[in-house]
Amino acid sequence: MTKTYQKLRTRIGFLSFLIIFSWISLTSRLFQVMIIDSEKYQKKSAEKTTRNKQIAPYRGNIFDRNNVQLTRNVTHYNVGVHPQDIKEKKAFSHMLSEHFGENFEYYISKVNSSSNYKTIHTKVTKDKIKSLLHDTPKGLKIDRYARRVYPHSNIVGQIVGFSDKDDIGLTGIEKTFNKELTGLPGWEVKKVDRKGRSHYNNNLPKKPAINGSNIKLSIDIEYQSILIEELKRRKSEMNAKGAIGILANPQNGKILAMASLPDFDPNFRDKFPIENQKNKAIVDLFEPGSIYKIVTSTAALNSKTVDILDEFYCEDGEYKFADNVISDHKSYGLMTFSEIFAHSSNIGMVKVAKELGPGQIYKYSRDFGFGSTTGISFPGEAKGILRSVNQWSDRSIIGVPIGYEVGVTALQMIMAYSAIANGGYLLKPIIVDQIISPENNAVFESKIEVIRKIASKSTMKKMKNMLGQAVDYGTGRKAKIDGWSVAGKTGTAYKFIDGKYSKNFISNFIGFFPKENPQIVGIVIIDDPKPNNGMHTGGDVAAPAFRRIASRLINLDDSIQFYKPKNQKKINTIMASLSSIEKYEKYTDGYSIMPNVRGMSLLKAKRILINANIYPKIIGSGTVVWQSPKPGSKINPESKCEIGLR
Question: Whole-structure pTM over 0.90, yes or no?
Fold first, then answer.
């Protein structure tokens, strides 16, 4: 009994020890799990019951200056399955069939696939997918996809550019301002049940995505449409290879329209040659021809080397200089500087350039912005070609003043002519007017930025008048608009191809209006025109397109105002000849005084009247013996005058 009891006691003690040891071990483990390692196990539990999901931001949009939307984000969803994560494959396939409408066999084939992932639907609308977004079964994958759409197609394709499927801007404004447009992604935590289905829960942590900023351009879609329509029309009429055009406000440097042909539609960019994506107005160089004569002309006037009535003999159309022959398109004899400019005499301009010298021509070329980028907020801008004087040849003093041996962009030319129009200031061009945050706050606003002053206001006033004369009775006559004063210049240049000048041409016209208070400056460039009538000059090819564009803008936009003289004293200085200078004042009511031209030769009388914006009707020949209206009469600007000669 004692032995039996002893054995029993030993067993009970051992059993008690095991129970106590187990209890202590269990308690210790529970303490470790619940107290010491609680965060670790809570995290593991959360990982099994929650799922982190990234929230993609919406890309900001691009607008024109009147808030017309140039881009849109069309949201779709792509739906796919991870077959290895689906246990009840038949039930899963029936659920998909009921939801999306395809037959059961279609879905079961996807679910039974050995692939890690199979796409079942693309471009699904939010309405179709809405319920599954909040209650997503395990194995089903839903991705939001925002497709970029360009509602104006080719009209602003080269300006706006495009982004890829990953919302990365590749060209144009989409590329330059990709960071601002993209925004920042957010994240959210979703609850996952035992079957692996995710559920939306407002109480779980999340960080909202920050959508991209919107970009407001200086471009006006109505101006842009007119420009591209007229460029296409003229390209077709002239059987040309291409065309380029820009419209801008010369007072603030804002680009209102910009286009080049051929173009492309960013919605279907793969159907167009990559070359068509280039904004040729900014990236392509060309030799400008006579529109470059503003450089030599401004230099001559501003340095007082030459004045508008100084005369030069234009050699009857052919001039030999430095073993080279310079030709004019017509035979001219003795001409004033203003006439040389208006009729675009190469010989006369080269003679003016010889008096200036290479240094001055190079200096003013640089001052006008040639040989350097304009600084526009756009990718790929070319700085052009302008060789320093020590790299000039003997022929350069002939070529550069008339627009050869230099490479320029259309944008550089627009900003140069804007400087004449605004009184002498080279401005930085503006194409982005505002950047607006997702909270609708303007985080950037453009402002006028003056790069330098090129010449005095009085010099630029003379240049404006000379450009006006070029349109009134010079090579730019086909750019005239009834009732409006237009200033501008034609240009025609041989194309340099394969190391030599070809028989192909670049024909252009650049101008602004109204002349007295310019509000619009525009350029039209026609590449390699082949008109049926054989007339390939800038005056015949490009000037008519400028006139049509300007006329349509005037009819479209009431803010373009016809010039009315202000109620203040106006001085109209008229140079009579080399030997005499006569001045005539405009009265405060905007009228002028008729100058006295009696006793003068026809040439001298014509120069005085034309420079006073008076258009003479000539009767007879010899010396002026009478005139109507009489000298000293009060007349309207741009009046007509009869002069009798005997």
Answer: no
